[in-house]
């Protein structure tokens, strides 16, 4: 468990990477280089998605509404299955999505061993609003603080909680805790939006020729993107639940009815095997409209959701991260399966 939080002790020593933190700022050279990169990548994305491939977006209005008109100061977190190295940016080739707008375009977490291997790549991906993440370094690595800062500024952050590309069509793998840790630690509870897709594994297959990817994305492929419904986590309620469970565990241990191992506060994992878990209900609200999102956030604020909660130990934080992650897994599995089903129906027709 400690390896998940702080990184594997057996991992190789971290190498020096060029992250160009100053380039990530919107004020870099008056914002002109960023706008140029976003405009160019956005045009290529729409060219490949709309003209060279047959991309269909389902419930896309929900994403457009949250990107353009969510409550002021409220961060947005989109989560998606990870089918290819080009999921981002190709999945954003949606008509009406302001890809060239530096203020509205998404931030995303990007693997430093792929996107930040030299100064040129680092400069390009930093202009493209990418935050370098070292895989295996734990959820408290330095650049996770940068991602948290973006959320605290009310920005849109996209993540792939599976952590790496998987082109197998089975159930989603166990998700990493990074997304949940950002949601739990944000000053304002973010809106979470699951997005499932199918077909990008055909546009950029991992094993195209001799175990390698193609030099350019393939064309004439069917791609389906399914946008789910927004979700909001009641973080103060989850914190209180973690404290209550801790107290209950200590009380049971002190009664002598169980072994002293109860002092470890092994909170229930709520189906953490992630094999057909039941939908969870504690501290989460699924919403069907932007107005419901605004009303729910206002209610949470009125009820004291913006007031600091109780101090938590590491075991309590683990319980919260697990709980949020499993909610994400359930919601993301639903939209991913819908995208695959739609894609299969299109292929059979």
Structure characterization notes:
With 349 residues, the chain is α/β, with parallel strands linked by helices. It has helices spanning 2-6, 32-52, 60-69, 87-90, 112-115, 119-127, 142-152, 178-185, 200-203, 235-254, 290-302, 314-348, and strands at residues 54-58, 76-80, 107-111, 130-133, 156-159, 191-198, 222-227, 231-233, 284-286. 41% of the residues lie in helices and 12% in strands. It has 12 helices and 9 strands.
Which key phrases capture this entry?
globular; nine-stranded mixed beta sheet; O-acyltransferase activity; 349 residues; Tafazzin; Glycerol-3-phosphate (1)-acyltransferase; membrane; alpha/beta; transferase
Write the layout of secondary structure elements.
Layout: H1 2-6, H2 32-52, E1 54-58, H3 60-69, E2 76-80, H4 87-90, E3 107-111, H5 112-115, H6 119-127, E4 130-133, H7 142-152, E5 156-159, H8 178-185, E6 191-198, H9 200-203, E7 222-227, E8 231-233, H10 235-254, E9 284-286, H11 290-302, H12 314-348
Parallel strand pairs: 1-7, 2-5, 2-6, 3-4, 3-5
Antiparallel strand pairs: 6-7, 6-8, 8-9
